[in-house]
Design goal:
By secondary structure, this protein is an alpha/beta fold. Strand 22 (about 570-575) and strand 23 form a beta hairpin.
Amino acid sequence: MPSPYSWPAISKIAYGGDYSPEQWPREVWREDVALMREAGVNMVSVGIFSWALIETAEGVFDFSWLDELLDLLHENGIAADLGTPTASPPAWFFAKYPEARVITRDGVTMGFGARGMASPSSPAYREAIVRYASRLAERYASHPAVVMWHVHNEYGVPVGEDYSPQSVRAWREWLKNRYSTLDGLNAAWGTAFWGQHYTDWEHVGAPAAAPSVVNPAQRLDFARFTDHQLRECFTLERDAIRAHGDQPITTNFMANQSWTTDLWAWAELVDIVSDDHYLWAADPEGEIGLAIAADLTRSVGRNKPWILMEHSTSAVNWQPRNIAKRPGEMARNSLAHVGRGADAVLFFQWRASRSGAEKFHSAMLPHAGTSSRVWKEVVQLGGALEKIDAIRGSRVQADVAILWDFESFWAQDLEWRPSEDITHAERIRAFYERLWRDNITIDFALPGHDLSAYKLVIAPAQYLLTAADAANLTRFVENGGTLLVSFFSAIVDENDAVHPGGYGAPLKDALGVTVDEFLPLREGEKSTVTWHDGSSLRADAWHEDLSLTTAQSVATYVDGPGALGGARPAITRNTYGAGTGWYLSTRLDADSLATVMADVYRDAGVVASDLPSGLEVITRHGDDARYTVAINHRDDNAQLPASGIELLTGETIAETLTVLPGGVAVVRSPHTAEGGGR
């Protein structure tokens, strides 16, 4: 069970990063802690990749260097987030237990020498991680430097699925627990198709590579199984630590950058949600992807303060083109995470490594040393976080939710879908980006969550929708909510089987429409949709042939396959109970989506911001004040209506604050004050 403690014993916003002193001689350690104090660092993550240096042989432990390090950190007022290095077992482990190596879907056995974990189903691996976690916690549970435990590292990255014999054995047991009988499994997987019927559990294999497409229901279950096995490994370590220590326990997620773990389920296991986020350099507006990740992290943690466990001071090393951050960008990134609920800002890593695969990855203390721009910005950021410390513990509030369902994504990502141009990631980004530009704060949610607190719920890509979740969305509309559903949603049930009644049938009451046929466009083909006021909307990639029951058409196809020889419904609006259901059957560009969303906002009672384009504003609410974080991504000044104290400068704001180009402002206002945005 998670610990009753909700935050590490640090009295300020946590600031620091991954620290790997084992890569450096002792004299560097003392230089490091002195520079940490100069930068305002108060917490570092240690021990995350040091298994081979501590358990030098099976059951043989040498903690001497870690003892020295933790004492040194404590003497200098720096707390430790102490890691279990179980993401990277040592060479001796694989030499003794070669069967613990991961086998890929194509049958390739993964070798040693990179980061990544052993098979999560391996009994030898599970025994080893419990032994290590137990010994670590037994030794350091009472050490004054240790304020938090950090289990493993980025579960599911770079290895998630495993097709080894021991994984297949565990898979069969998982299936028995899920379906009880082969009849149940055969029914769920639809094995009558292609003659796949099973009569013996030993005949059920993992969905390895095959001559054609493997049963999609089997592959969906294998994704669920993989996530389950990873979570079991985490739980084993967590419980081994909890037997000795009561500090909070976390593991670092990769929200919006890894699709192999169901973060809603993982968030129930940790004491504090933490996330690693790295800008995708090819994205010219990486701040939007950052906001998605931050909002998702906050959402899976049910709006509790969370930890930004890793991000980068400048360029990373693992993308095709590793673009350095521009002056001020590191602070903008960091404070955007804080604005969206983070009470800790940490980096990978403290000191840049001289050797290994990540030697070109940026760090708080880069190869260029303390004369560098990056170091100066690191010190400035430490000072800024101290000035805004009052923001700690405050919460973000949202009136709008976007549905984010990992199981649906796993199912949609499988082969033989109607068009390879249609992805859940693209649609979520499109709708999120529209709301981001309108400065509307959102939460993410599952379709089965209690949605009653929201005015508007958006389903950009809910391909898989259970009957129970569809009923929940229908009640949301009936009770007065506004629901917007995008195309290729409510298509299949939990077994990837098309719903009885056809495409979209579970939401027929709420939306007043079903889909007769998918009409994907050819590559590069464009089309025009006429809005109800006569204006034209630009669309591509996807059309549908709709059957309307109670819905009204508010936009029609005028060309392309959706027109079917005449003006046919493309976007519909339906009144159901006290609420409204919208359905978009085509892919709109950003400007056209703005036209539609203006009407949707009016239905929902959501007010879009009239702030300058490129001024990102988020508000956190505390017991006695609210904190408006404004980030100017523009090349010129931006005016923010606000009143209160700007915490970074100490300036008193009466009505309007000028946010400089590339700048950040944090305004503390009494709850009764006007302005500040939301």
